[in-house]
Amino acid sequence: MERRNFVKKMSALATGSLLLSGSNLYSFETENEIKNNSIDLSPLTFTDREMILKGNFIDAATLEPISSVIMKVKPLKNRLAYKQTIESKDGSYEIKTGFSIANKKVTERVAIEIIATGYKPLVSELYLSRFGCNVHCSIWKYNPNLKIDDSPKNYLKENHTLSIFDFHLVKA
């Protein structure tokens, strides 16, 4: 009897992991799907606060936008999370996620990898929370000329947060 209950619970979990959340299908077949400029990392559960991180990929020396950039994003929260890819043609990106009051988790770590031809690849982490975005210190190791003014700008409104951050890529 215990074995049957275990099998029922596991089948419910497996079925639940394939549910739709916004535009995401949580299955392993969509791991290599390439999207244009936006990624939705919203959880399956109800969210009280939406968080949007947006910005551009720019050259660290000239501050000009970089076209044709590939950004790989993977949430580091659970085993069901999968890597998503943005292929930006105009040099911009947008990452959406959400947080609920019931979930006591303060931040969500997100691993990023940015690849652009002619530039050093950037591998780092972002910390997303209901109060905005923070960057990992490896971004300053990648680009030592980055100023404190170039850190993420966070704007809080009633039930959503907007963070703006431009990735300054260094030529190879």
Number of helices: 2
Radius of gyration from the CA trace? 18 Å
Intertermini distance: 62 Å
Number of strands: 14
> How would you classify the helix and strand content by structural class?
mainly beta
Helical percentage = 10-25%
Mean pLDDT: 80
Overview of the structural elements:
This protein is mostly beta strands and 172 residues long. It has helices spanning 2-16, 138-142; strands at residues 20-21, 24-25, 34-35, 38-40, 49-59, 69-75, 84-88, 92-99, 107-116, 122-129, 132-135, 153-156, 160-164, 167-169. A hairpin with a 2-residue loop joins strand 1 (20-21) and strand 2 (24-25). The radius of gyration is 18 Å and the shape is globular. The protein starts with a helix and ends with a strand. Residues 17-34 have low confidence and may be disordered.
List the helices and strands and how they pair.
Blueprint: H1 2-16, E1 20-21, E2 24-25, E3 34-35, E4 38-40, E5 49-59, E6 69-75, E7 84-88, E8 92-99, E9 107-116, E10 122-129, E11 132-135, H2 138-142, E12 153-156, E13 160-164, E14 167-169
Parallel strand pairs: 3-7, 4-8, 5-13, 5-14
Antiparallel strand pairs: 1-2, 5-8, 6-7, 6-9, 9-10, 10-11, 12-13
Summarize the structure.
This protein has helices at 2-16, 138-142; strands at 20-21, 24-25, 34-35, 38-40, 49-59, 69-75, 84-88, 92-99, 107-116, 122-129, 132-135, 153-156, 160-164, 167-169.
Question: Characteristics of this structure?
Answer:
single chain; 172 residues; mainly beta; six-stranded mixed β-sheet; 12% helix
